[in-house]
Design goal:
heterodimer; A: about 130 residues; about 70% helix; B: about 80 residues; mainly alpha; about 80% helix; transmembrane (chain B); Transcriptional regulator (chain B); transmembrane helix (chain B)
Chain lengths: ~130, ~80
């Protein structure tokens, strides 16, 4: 009785399928089939055993509402701070105009030039739709 | 001071409203689209309308879309 020798070639089609890719089929398809045969059933069983908690629509709405309120509060806080600083700057500008109009014009020109330089600098050039922002 | 008295009061009030409105809008919009909302807001408080124009050109205009459209119209 002749023992089965591993050096022998595959005896049937099933052996051919499990041992090496069939000629003409892509290696990716063969690997996918192999993966499915070896691991697929166990993965499916594991997947079925896991039942994640699906949050209710009310909890999601609550989450979105809380975030919206937080953002609105932050906006109002920033706006109030901005208006306080704006009041101080505007008061300073009005006093400057009353004291010396020429100095006021010089300040305006300097601010315009500095702002334009800042805008064309590489730091700000990266801004724009589709680019990195806050 | 004399030059200031020549300017009508209503024009000064209008200018003040324009500056505050511009700076507030720039600050709020720049918080969503820019890394420098304070810069745009404060610049908008001091001058008008250059900050608005440059903000639109630098931050809001979609340059990639503009380049795409420009290439479409090329012969």
């Amino acid at each position: 009785m002749r023992r089965k020798n591993h050096h022998d070639g595959p005896k049937n089609k099933r052996d051919m399928e499990t041992e090496s890719p069939i000629e003409g089929s892509s290696s990716e398809e063969w690997e996918a089939e192999q993966f499915e045969q070896l691991v697929g059933r166990h993965l499916k069983q594991w997947d079925d055993s896991v039942t994640p908690e699906i949050p209710s629509i009310q909890s999601l709405e609550q989450l979105a509402g809380d975030q919206r309120d937080r953002l609105r509060g932050r906006l109002w806080r920033d706006l109030l701070l901005f208006w306080v600083v704006s009041g101080m700057i505007l008061s300073g500008l009005v006093l400057l105009v009353q004291r010396d109009l020429k100095l006021f014009i010089i300040v305006q020109v300097v601010v315009l030039m500095a702002a334009c330089l800042f805008v064309v600098s590489p730091v700000v050039r990266r801004e724009g739709r589709g680019k990195w922002t806050n | 001071m004399d030059e200031l008295k020549q300017i009508p009061v209503w024009l000064l009030v209008l200018l003040l409203i324009a500056l505050i409105s511009q700076s507030t809008w720039l600050f709020i919009d720049a918080r969503k689209h820019s890394r420098f909302p304070w810069f745009w807001g404060l610049w908008g408080l001091i001058q008008v309308p250059m900050p608005l124009i440059l903000y639109w050109l630098v931050v809001r205009v979609d340059r990639a879309q503009y380049e795409k459209l420009r290439n479409l119209w090329k012969p």
